[in-house]
Amino acid sequence: MNTLTIPSIHYLTILPVLIFFGSSLLLLVASAMWRRSLPMVFSTTMAVLTSLAVLVVTYFQWRGLDHGGATTTVAHAVVLDGFSVVATAVIAVSVGLAAIVAHDWALRENVRGPEYQILAMASSAGAVLMTQANDLIVIFLGLEILSLGLYVLVALDRRKTESAEASLKYFILGGFASAIFIYGAALLYGATGSTNLTTISYFLGSNVLLQPGLLVAGGALLLVGFAFKIAAVPFHMWSPDVYEGAPTPVTGFMASIVKVGAFAALIRVMISGLGTQLGTWRPILWVLIALTTVVGAALALPQRNAKRLLAYSSINHAGFILIGVWAGTARGSAALLFYLATYAPTVVATFAIVTVMGGLGDERHSLESYRGLARRQPWLGASLAVLLLSQLGAPLTAGFYAKFSVLAAAVDAGGSVLALIALLSAAIAASFYLRWTVVLYAEPDDDIDATRVVVPRGTALVIGVGVVLTLLFGVWPGPLVTLAQHATVYFLP
Amino acid sequence: MHSSLWLSALIVLPLLGALVAMLVRRTPGASYGVAVGVGVIEVVLSLVVAVLYKSNVAGAQGFDFLSRHVVSAPLGLAYDVALDGLSLLMVVLTALVLLLSLLGGRDKRREPAFVSWLLILTGLTMGSFVAHDVLEFFVFFELTLVPCYFIISGWGGAERARAALKFFLYTFTASAFLLIGILYMGFAYQHQHPTLGLTFAYGAMAATSMSHATAVWLFVAFALAFGAKAPIWPLHTWSPLTYAEAPTAGSIELSALLAKLGSYGLLRFAVGLLPLAQVSVRPYVLTLAVIGILYGSTLACVAKDLKRFVAYSSLAQMSFITLGVMSGSTIGVTGAVLLMFNHGVITIGFFLIIGFLERRRASIQIADFSGLQGPAPVLAALFTVAMLASIGLPGLSGFISEYLILIGTFTTHAWWSVFASLGVLASAVYLLWAYQRVFHGRALGANAEIADASPSERWVLVPVVVLIVVLGVFPKPVLDRITPSVHTFVTQVATASVGK
């Protein structure tokens, strides 16, 4: 009888996952043990403290990297490298910010209970695991943990049918995507004899596959699975419906966390695992990026609903972030990391404003309801304007350098045409961001009830943090760019 | 060499002014006062810089006030400013446009925000003109869109939203090509010099070696971006609508100043960085310029409102500038640099007077006016000065610059010059005709009761008239300051265009 050998575990590496998951479990148990329903403040505080704890851990991880360099643990299935540390920190920040927004939303909507925080922290554990995974099976595990929580979160607003519908749609399509992903992993195992990315890379580097069909099919299926998660065209159909149907704070959470987790895993698979096959997957990705950027921007044009519009805008952004993967260089990886680090807080803050604007019932999402916002509430309006300009890519906001760095990486890697297509799609996107901005500053209409919306203190803080980060990295991008570049130096091949 | 702090002050001061103007927004009129104060200081500073400027700083190739600070090495981002004869007049024009559009185009609706946007726009435009790093230029260039957009969409006419969007999208789309071109050059240079970090410094970009085909492609990319801004025919279609819908100060900023970013960019970056492409692209761009001159003149004849009229005549004038920029001769380029300034000044005059008329009649339709000469002789006289300068009457500023352009182009591309000179004739036709329709004839109804220029309105136009006359009669001091740089510039391009 075989004995099961327990692989050695470097606990600092998996501490963020453990903290998120442990905290989630603790909250679950606590809410079950408590006689009456758990006070909201308790669960939210716990979620925020948990994210802070993870942030502190990433600091120590980073210091450890300076001494020991990148390492793997749990039988080389989980890595600790600069890339994963920075991505984890980005996730932690986003989770903390999103938790506060969700808290204020739940109070307004009277959806009391700790469910949101429990599920969000569990999901985050999955996302963090994805950033650290060095094995297709671990990536799958992370993906499933991330998604399962999200399926429920999307349906959190029990009283709304749209919420349930969105959840079901997300669940069914997500299930398909997971199946496709794991099938791809199986084929890749068949082709290379391992699911470990390092081993796959080593195998492909030292062998020539005479019949690479299995490998290509496996890689393609993996790519489809990822493309679904990041909503790349033509696998984007679900995202506007889900973005619209989900409770707004959940949408903000999804838009930031899922992107960070999925992109971190994607770039690791493509570069660490299949880096030797660059010539094969690059053309596929090229087409995918061209479609994603252009279609995402073009379909956003006719949208009149803020959440749907942001869904298409996030598709456009996904295309830009994919360029970092396409480049396949250290510059590309650093650019991708910088993009994620600036995009995540921006999008959380944007959805925080959309949450506030939604009003009781979370239903006022037509762009018309934003008319004259900046005249009624100058700070709120100006914040949204800054966040939209950042997503547009205007200079002096973080969005400009994010776009600039991925485009620079593309041009550096010989993709001038691709960069041009993406940038032209940004010009299309500019028109809807600007139209929205103009509505903010337009004269208020009389027939639309132009009441001031209440901005809870916590949400105001989140919006403030988002705006400050956006402007800070826009005026002074140096340190974050250098950090992203350092992080990829520690990228484990 | 002088300290670069002068140039930094020119950029930072308006930005700080915008902040202060917003801080004092509760006191009525205070922000306007702050803005005018900043405008005066800017004009003085820019004149000081123009006087201090030395064209013979050793090893600087005509540049002065140089300094370079790297902001972010991995991005290749740097703050790098310098001034030479090509940008000297533009800096003065930027300051002048701010002051005069504030004084003449005062808009009291939400004034603090309005003057803040104007100040921000000035700081950014200043930055574009003194940027000595291609990426830095792009950042400033792109940023100017934001204040422009808000000025047009916030204070413009009935169709302001559409005009602002059209303007923004046009320039934003075109500049996509510019950014990719810049990135391409930056990485080409880095791959040729792997030991150096990523840089977009002007000198480094100029030293990038490339094939002829690459140079032509890059030129096309650059020319698209700058041609949409300038505008060069057929990329001008945004300008009539935008000029017509913008508030007076906005129209002045756009046509007198921001259009110059296009021609300046074409000269400094498309011509200066891509000498190899010159010989092959010149005939095409010159042809477009000649078409622009004739097309703009023709449409100016039939324009129905005064702002569109100036927009089309500007298209013709800007095409003259393009002609000079692409002429490849020192005389032609000198003329172009001079005309950039002169056209700026003349356009300020035109739009200010149109703004005064709009204030009186709430209309800019040519058909609504007639016989204004009788009730408003001073306005008519001021319009006449600007008009005659624009036609190119000897003794006024327009003459010398157009003359230099035509002479310069004739020495290198004679036939284009011949056709372009028809434009001088055409300008006389459309300007005199417009003058006739607006100021001649009998003043009836509301036109008979129109008030003449008030003292403050006269004073605003004094600098314009003085500049038009002085630069027409005695342009030598100005020419002396710009010619050395232009000569160095043109010689470098000519040497490099033969091939390395």
Commentary on this structure:
The complex is a heterodimer of chains A (493) and B (500). With 493 residues, chain A is an all-alpha fold. Chain A has one domain. Chain A is built from 19 helices and 2 strands. Chain A has a two-stranded antiparallel ribbon with strand order 1-2. The mean pLDDT of chain A is 89. With 500 residues, chain B is mainly alpha-helical. Chain B has one domain. Chain B has 19 helices and 2 strands. A two-stranded antiparallel ribbon of chain B has the order 1-2. In chain B, α12 (275-302) runs parallel beside α17 and α14 (330-361) crosses α19. Chain B is globular. The model of chain B has no long low-confidence stretch (mean pLDDT 85). Chains A and B meet through α16, α17 and α19 of A and α5, α6 and α7 of B.
Label the structural class of chain A: mainly alpha
Low-confidence stretches of chain A: none
Radius of gyration of chain B: 22 Å
Q: What's the number of structural domains of chain A?
A: 1
Query: Biggest interface and which pair forms it?
Result: A-B, 32 and 34 residues
Strand order of the largest sheet of chain A: 1-2
Layout of secondary structure:
The complex is a heterodimer of chains A (493) and B (500).
Chain A: H1 11-33, H2 40-68, E1 71-73, E2 78-80, H3 82-109, H4 115-132, H5 136-154, H6 161-192, H7 197-206, H8 213-229, H9 238-245, H10 248-273, H11 278-300, H12 306-327, H13 330-358, H14 373-376, H15 378-392, H16 398-412, H17 416-441, H18 457-475, H19 478-489
Antiparallel strand pairs in A: 1-2
Helix pairs in contact in A: 1-2, 1-4, 2-3, 3-4, 3-10, 3-13, 3-19, 4-5, 4-10, 5-6, 5-10, 6-8, 6-9, 7-10, 9-12, 10-12, 10-13, 11-12, 11-17, 12-13, 12-16, 12-17, 13-15, 13-16, 13-18, 13-19, 15-17, 15-18, 16-17, 16-18
Chain B: H1 5-23, H2 30-52, E1 64-72, E2 77-83, H3 85-104, H4 111-130, H5 134-143, H6 145-155, H7 160-192, H8 202-206, H9 212-229, H10 239-245, H11 248-273, H12 275-302, H13 306-325, H14 330-361, H15 377-391, H16 397-412, H17 414-439, H18 455-473, H19 476-497
Antiparallel strand pairs in B: 1-2
